[in-house]
Amino acid sequence: MNDVYSAWKINEKDFPETGTPEDKLSFLAKYAVLAPSTYNTQPWLFEVSQGEMVLSLDRRYGLPVIDPQDRQMIISCSAAILNLEIAAEHFGYSLDIEIFDDAEETDKLAVIKLKDRITHRSDENSALFRAIPERQMNRYHFHSAPLAQDDMVALKKAVSVEGAWIHVCDENEKESLIKMIVDADYAQNSDKNFRREIASWLDKRRVYSGDGMPELQMKCHDLVTTSTPLAVRRFFGDDGDTVPADKMSEGSPVLAIIGSVTGSLENKIKAGKAFMRLLLAAQSRGIGVSTLNQPCQIAETRLRLYDELGLQGRAQIIVRMGYPKKKPLPAPRRPFDKVIIGSGYGTTKAPVKQENIFSKIIQFFRRLFLAK
Ligand SMILES: Cc1cc2nc3c(=O)[nH]c(=O)nc-3n(C[C@H](O)[C@H](O)[C@H](O)COP(=O)(O)O)c2cc1C
Predict the structure, then answer these.
(1) Sorting pLDDT into bands at 50, 70 and 90, what band is 34?
(2) Domain limits, CATH 3.40.109.30, in the chain
(3) pLDDT of residue 166 exceeding 90
């Protein structure tokens, strides 16, 4: 069987300094696949040919129940783009990244090329680069101590440099948010289709494909029949069981929402990159992070985020942060040759924008009604 955890053992000394642009882009993609993704679906495909790399949303790994609009899929792939940028800078390159405007209706998200050589690398870049293979979601109870002021400042900056926003909850807002998490858990667990979907990704046989969360050693049929909240959707309490609602605040010193100004593709990408930069900044400072994203996955609780917390724009992802008590186990990754492949299919050029007035009108209404 493949070692589905070997992706984490990447060695920077293996960078093909004298190789072709394709060799270099393929190597950078090995850092991209260490990004987080919903249920560890890894919904990305990197196709490298003719000096460029096309990143596609791999809809074979879509989640029709929990993520019907592929919003979280785009966030996951955008997190992977940020890893690419950080790794490229570390190896002395800037990237030319062109986004396909129609990615939400098709599959191709971006075409990426090596651009200029960079002679100066910032200390910040080195810290973030080192954090890529070190980072994991931490679903253990955190120490209840609040985060230090300078850590909070660094985390907020990580989000804002990518053009997204972060709202850090005060104590009252934390209680409101926890109620929304509990309500969303209840609504999702009452839905058999949700239970079937999550069961498929948490099943222990996922270890054969190198995706999902097989480390939790769950059995598909047990998950389909249970309606109790799962630790993987909340986090583990100090006793090793799923944390109950009344202990969630104590185990989550910081609860915050990362959002974007609008629901456009460009803004979702900003939110995904901001999320990744925050995760790397947190890792480099010894801060643990996990997500409690269920309120963003249900229309009613997503609206309550705006009503009860006074948020504006689009809430994209909810993070829980604190100083860790325990180091988490890594999640598997699919073998590189299943996600980074050598020859493209179809054209790798971004489509030329239609100048036709009718298609412009159609695109305008599509964006208006499909904006999430
Ligand atoms: C958009 C997005 C949403 C996520 N939502 C949740 C969530 O609601 N609960 C959770 O425990 N983990 C969530 N995760 C984390 C994934 O489960 C995690 O990234 C994946 O299992 C891979 O593990 P790793 O990040 O440690 O490599 C989310 C990740 C992404 C990118």
Answers:
(1) very high
(2) 6-135+332-370
(3) yes
Candidate from 39, 177, 276, 278 with most ligand 1 atoms within 8 A of CB, to mutate: 39
pLDDT value at 216 more than 90:
no
Mean pLDDT of 308-313: 95
Please spell the DSSP secondary structure of 195-252, one letter per residue: HHHHHHHHBGGGGGTT-S-GGG-B-HHHHHH--SPPTTTS-B-TTSSBPPGGGTTTT-
User: Phi-psi bin for 346: left (phi > 0), alpha (psi -120 to 50), beta?
Assistant: left
pLDDT of residue 14: 97
- The pLDDT > 90 percentage for the chain reads 80
- pLDDT tens, position by position, 63-112: 999 999 999 999 999 999 999 999 999 999 999 999 999 999 999 999 99
Q: Going by CA atoms, what residue is nearest to atom 21 of ligand 1? A: 40
Pick the CATH number of 6-135+332-370 from 3.40.50.1820, 3.40.109.30, 3.30.1330.10, 3.40.50.1780: 3.40.109.30
Which residues have C-beta within 8 Å of that of residue 82, sequence separation ≥ 6?
A: 35, 162, 272, 273, 276, 277, 280
Q: Using the mean position of ligand 1's atoms as its centre, give its distance from the Cα of residue 274 in Å.
A: 15
Ligand 1 centroid from CA 117, angstroms: 33
Look at residue 346 and tell me whether its pLDDT is greater than 50: no
Which of 4, 34, 37 best tests ligand 1's pocket when mutated (most atoms within 8 Å of CB)? Answer: 37
Q: What whole-number distance in Å separates Cα of residue 80 and Cα of residue 57?
A: 11
Q: Which CATH class is domain 149-190+227-322?
A: alpha beta
- CB under 6 Å to ligand 1: residues? 36-40, 72, 75-76, 79, 136-137, 139, 213, 232-233, 290-294, 317, 331
